[in-house]
Design brief:
Chain B: It is found in: Cell inner membrane; Cell membrane. The complex is a heterodimer of chains A (about 325) and B (about 475). Helices cover about 75% and strands about 5% of the residues of chain A. By secondary structure, chain A is mostly helical. A two-stranded antiparallel sheet of chain A has the order 1-2. Chain B has a domain of about 180 residues. The chains are: A mainly alpha (about 325), B mainly alpha (about 475).
Chain lengths: ~325, ~475
C-alpha cells in the first residue's frame, strides 16, 4: 500500500513536470501567435515564424505526453476531466489544427493576404484561452458521480474560468514577447521590448487577480494558503514572485537579451507552484485524489521505467535541436 | 440541434470521421520517411545529385503531410477522453501506458529531429543530417509499433485481468504488447504504408514521365517506386492472407462479416465474390459465389465446415454490409497493385519502363490506390470488431462519455467543417508541389528559400512549363 502511495505521488510529479514543460515550451510558441497581429509586416512575420518553426512540433508533443500520461497513470481523472472540459478541449484541438498547419501552409498560399497568418494568430489565441479556461474549470471543481462526470457541457463557463483563460493568454504573450527579445534584432526587438513591459504589468495584474479569486472559490484553498502552519511554506511564493518581478523590471530596463525570457519563465514556474499548492493532493479538486485516480501499481511501474530512461534522453536531444537553431534569427540568415 | 440523436452514434461517427482523415497521413509519412532516408543514404554513398534533388523534392511534401498527421493525431489522442471516457477509465491502465510509450519513444524522436531534417542540412552537415532523417524514419516505425499494439489488444485482448473497479489491468505486459493479432497487423500495416508511398511516388514519377520522358529525377523515382510495387505487393498479399487466418482463429465472427457468411456451411463454405448483404433478413442477396472456395482459402480444405452468423446472437453481429464491401475494395486494390508491379516488371525487362504510356497512365491512376486500400482495410477491421471496443469484453455502447447528443453532435459538426477547410487546402498544396517536376538544384522546405511572396517561385514555375 505504501508503495502505491509513493508511486501516485511520483506520477503526480511526473505529470506536473510534463505539463509544465509543455506550458514553458508551447507557451512562448503560442505567445508568438498571440502577438502576430501586432507585427503586420510580412518580413517581421517570417522572422517570428522562423524563430520557432524548427521546434514547434516538439513543443506540442509535451501536450500529448501530458494527456497520454494522465490516461495511463490516472485513468479515472482523465475519464472525469475530459468530458467536464469538453468544450474548451474541442476548441483547443481545433485551434491547434489551424495553427499547426499554418507553419507549412503559409509558405504555400498564393495571393496578397495570407489566410494562414490569420489561422496562426486565431488558433494561438483560442488555444491559449481554452487552456486557461480549462485550468480554471479544474480549479473550481467538477461534478462527479460513481466514476463519471455528472455535469453538463457548459458547467465550465464561469467568471473565474474566463479570468484564468485571459490570464493565460497574457502570460503566453509575455513569454512570446521576451522570446522575441532573445531571438531577434533591430526594430523587431525594440517592439518586443515595449510589448514585454506592457505584458509584464498585465501579467502581474492577472497573478494578483487569480491569487485573490482562487481562495474565494473554496474554503479548502483558503486554509491551504493562510492557515497556520501552512503559511510558513506558502508565504515564500508571493515573496519570490515579487523578487523575480524586480529582476525582470531591471532586465527590461537594461535591455538584456536572455534574462527577460528566463525570468518570465521563473514567473510561470512560481505561479505553477502556487497552483500545485492549491490542488495537492487532488487531481480533480474536491472530488478525486491522486491515490483514488491512480492506475494499478503495475501500470505505473511499467511506464515509470520508460519515463526515467527516456525523459532525460528526450530533454537531451531536444536541447540539441534548440542548440542547432540557437542565436538570433536574421531575416537573411536561413537563405543560402 | 442534435436533440433527437443518439450520442453514441454521433461519437462513433466522430471517431470514424477524424480517424479516416488522420490515417491517410501516417500511412503516407511512414513510407515517405523511409524513402527519404533511402534517398539521402544513396546521395551520401554515390554523390549523385539526382538523389539530393529527389530528397529535397519529397522533403517539402513530407513537411506538409507530416504536419497534417501531427495535428489530426493530437485530436485522436484526446478523443479517448472527450468522447470515450468510460473506455478511457476501464482500459487506461492497459492501453494508456502503450500510448504513452508511443509518445516517449516515437513522437518525441520524430519531433525532436524533424526540425534538423527540414531546415538543418547546412547547419549540421550531411552526416548529422542523415542521422536526423534516420531518426525521423525510425520514429514513424516505432509509432506504428505501439499504436498497432494497442489497437491489436482491443481486437485480441490478452495478458489482462479485471480489478474491483471494473478496470482492465495488465497481468503480463509482454502478452499485452505481443497479443495474438499484433505481429500480423503490424506487418500488414507497415507494408501498406510502404506500398501507399510507392504508389504516390510512382504516380508522380509517371505523371512527369508522360510530359517529359527524359527528366532524370522522374526516371529514378519511377523506377524505385515500381521496384517497390513489384516486390512488396505480392508480399503484402501473403501477409494479408496470414492476417486473415489469424483473424479466423481469434475473431471468427469478424471473418463471417467479411465473407458475408450469415448461414453456417457444415459441408464447406462458398466464396461469395459479390452480393448485397441484407442485415435485416440475415442473408446475402444476389450472391455470386464459388462453391467450397471459402473453406479452401480459410481452412485449406474444400469440405471443412464453417459456422455462420446464425450461430451468433444477433446483438453481437458486426455490420456485415460495411465489412463485406470494404474488405472487397481492399482486396481488389491489392490485386491491382500486384498487377501494376507485374506490368512494370515486364516493361522493365522489355526496356520500355520509361516509354510505355500505358504503364505510366496505369501508374498515375493507381496513385490513390494505397490510401483507398488502407481506409478500406481499417474500416474492415474496426467495424468488424463491433459491437465491441474491446473484443467480446467491452461493448461500444458502454464505452462512451456521459455526454448529451448536442455536445457530441456540435463537436462533430465543427470537426467536419474544419477538416474540410484545412484538408482541402493541404491536399491542394500537396498536389501543387507534386505537379512540379523534380529539377536540378531542387531546394528544401521554404525556410531556406529566398524571400518571396508566393509559395512557388517564378523560377521554378518557369521550369515546369
Amino acid at each position: 500500500m505504501s508503495l502505491a502511495i509513493d508511486l501516485a505521488t511520483v506520477w503526480a510529479l511526473i505529470i506536473a513536470f510534463a505539463v509544465f514543460v509543455y506550458v514553458v515550451m508551447d507557451g512562448f510558441d503560442l505567445g508568438l501567435g498571440i502577438l502576430f497581429p501586432l507585427f503586420p509586416a510580412k518580413a517581421d512575420r517570417d522572422v517570428v515564424m522562423n524563430s520557432v518553426a524548427p521546434v514547434w512540433d516538439g513543443n506540442e508533443t509535451w501536450l500529448v505526453l501530458g494527456g497520454g500520461g494522465v490516461m495511463a497513470a490516472f485513468p479515472l481523472a482523465y475519464a472525469v476531466l475530459m468530458p467536464a472540459l469538453y468544450t474548451p478541449m474541442i476548441a483547443m484541438l481545433i485551434a491547434l489544427v489551424f495553427r499547426g498547419v499554418a507553419f507549412e501552409f503559409r509558405w504555400r498560399a498564393q495571393g496578397e493576404r495570407n489566410p494562414w497568418d490569420l489561422a496562426f494568430a486565431g488558433g494561438s489565441w483560442l488555444a491559449a484561452l481554452a487552456q486557461g479556461v480549462a485550468l480554471g474549470a479544474i480549479l473550481q471543481g467538477v461534478k462527479v458521480e460513481a466514476r463519471h462526470y455528472a455535469g453538463g457541457w457548459w458547467d465550465w463557463l464561469t467568471p473565474f474560468s474566463i479570468l484564468t483563460g485571459v490570464s493565460l493568454v497574457i502570460g503566453y504573450a509575455l513569454l512570446g514577447a521576451t522570446w522575441l527579445v532573445m531571438k531577434t534584432e533591430g526594430r523587431l526587438r525594440d517592439r518586443a521590448y515595449r510589448l514585454s513591459w506592457l505584458l509584464l504589468f498585465a501579467m502581474l495584474g492577472a497573478i494578483v487577480a487569480v491569487s485573490i479569486a482562487t481562495p474565494l472559490l473554496h474554503v479548502q484553498y483558503t486554509q491551504r494558503w493562510f492557515a497556520w502552519p501552512n503559511i510558513i511554506f506558502t508565504a515564500p511564493v508571493p515573496i519570490a514572485v515579487a523578487a523575480v518581478t524586480v529582476l525582470l523590471l531591471r532586465a527590461l530596463a537594461n535591455k538584456y537579451d536572455y534574462q527577460p525570457f528566463f525570468l518570465s519563465l521563473a514567473l510561470f514556474a512560481l505561479s505553477y507552484a502556487g497552483l500545485g499548492i492549491s490542488m495537492y493532493p487532488f487531481i480533480v479538486p474536491q472530488s478525486i485524489t491522486i491515490w483514488q485516480a491512480a492506475a494499478p501499481p503495475n501500470s505505473q511501474i511499467f511506464l515509470l521505467f520508460g519515463v526515467s530512461v527516456l525523459i532525460p534522453l528526450i530533454l537531451g536531444y531536444t536541447a540539441w535541436a534548440y542548440w542547432v537553431f540557437r542565436g538570433k534569427v536574421r531575416p537573411e540568415s536561413g537563405y543560402h | 440541434m442534435f436533440e433527437g440523436w443518439d450520442a453514441v452514434t454521433l461519437a462513433r461517427a466522430q471517431f470514424a470521421f477524424t480517424m479516416s482523415f488522420h490515417i491517410v497521413f501516417p500511412s503516407f509519412s511512414i513510407g515517405l520517411a523511409s524513402y527519404l532516408a533511402v534517398l539521402e543514404a544513396r546521395w551520401l554513398l554515390t554523390g549523385r545529385e539526382v538523389f539530393l534533388n529527389l530528397f529535397n523534392y519529397w522533403l517539402k511534401i513530407f513537411a506538409i503531410a507530416f504536419g497534417m498527421g501531427v495535428v489530426s493525431g493530437i485530436v485522436m489522442a484526446y478523443q479517448f477522453g472527450t468522447n470515450w471516457s468510460a473506455f478511457a477509465d476501464k482500459t487506461g491502465p492497459v492501453i494508456g501506458p502503450l500510448m504513452a510509450y508511443e509518445v516517449l519513444t516515437a513522437f518525441f524522436l520524430e519531433a525532436g529531429f524533424l526540425g534538423v531534417m527540414l531546415f538543418g542540412l547546412k547547419l549540421v552537415g550531411p552526416r548529422l543530417h542523415f542521422l536526423a532523417t534516420l531518426m525521423v524514419a525510425i520514429g514513424t516505425l516505432i509509432s506504428a509499433f505501439w499504436i498497432l499494439s494497442s489497437n491489436s489488444w482491443m481486437q485480441t485482448p490478452a495478458g489482462y485481468a479485471v480489478n474491483a473497479d471494473g478496470q482492465f489491468v495488465a497481468a503480463d505486459w509482454l502478452k499485452v504488447i505481443f497479443n495474438p493479432s499484433f505481429p500480423y497487423r503490424l506487418v500488414h500495416m507497415v507494408l501498406a504504408a510502404y506500398l501507399t508511398t510507392a504508389l504516390v511516388v510512382g504516380a508522380v514519377g509517371a505523371f512527369h514521365l508522360l510530359r517529359n520522358p527524359h527528366l532524370a529525377g522522374s526516371r529514378v523515382m519511377f523506377s524505385m517506386a515500381m521496384w517497390m510495387a513489384t516486390l512488396v505487393a505480392p508480399i503484402q498479399i501473403i501477409a494479408g492472407d496470414q492476417h486473415g487466418l489469424n483473424t479466423l482463429e481469434h475473431q471468427p465472427v469478424k471473418i463471417m462479416g467479411m465473407e458475408g457468411h450469415y448461414q453456417s456451411h457444415p459441408g464447406g463454405a462458398p466464396l461469395i465474390l459479390f452480393g448485397l448483404p441484407d442485415q435485416q433478413e440475415g442473408k446475402v442477396k444476389y450472391a455470386l459465389e464459388i462453391p467450397k472456395l471459402g473453406s479452401l482459402i480459410l481452412k485449406h480444405s474444400p469440405d471443412a465446415p464453417m459456422p455462420g452468423l446464425d450461430t451468433v446472437p444477433r446483438e453481437n453481429w458486426p455490420p456485415v454490409p460495411i465489412t463485406f464491401w470494404s474488405f472487397r475494395i481492399m482486396v481488389g486494390m491489392g490485386f491491382l497493385m500486384f498487377g501494376l508491379g507485374l506490368f512494370s516488371l515486364w516493361c522493365r525487362w522489355r526496356g520500355s519502363l520509361f516509354d510505355s504510356r500505358l504503364l505510366h497512365v496505369f501508374a498515375v491512376l493507381m496513385g490513390p490506390a494505397g490510401f483507398i486500400a488502407v481506409l478500406a482495410g481499417w474500416i474492415t477491421t474496426e467495424t468488424g470488431r463491433q459491437p465491441f471496443t474491446v473484443y467480446n469484453l467491452l461493448r461500444t455502447s458502454e464505452s462512451a462519455s456521459p455526454l448529451a447528443a448536442p455536445a457530441v453532435g456540435s463537436s462533430l459538426l465543427a470537426f467536419v467543417i474544419v477538416y474540410f477547410v484545412v484538408y482541402a487546402a493541404g491536399v491542394t498544396y500537396l498536389l501543387r508541389l507534386m505537379a512540379q517536376p523534380p529539377h536540378p538544384g531542387e531546394v528544401g522546405p521554404p525556410h531556406e528559400m529566398p524571400t518571396r511572396t508566393a509559395g512557388i517561385t517564378p523560377a521554378i514555375e518557369g521550369v515546369s512549363q
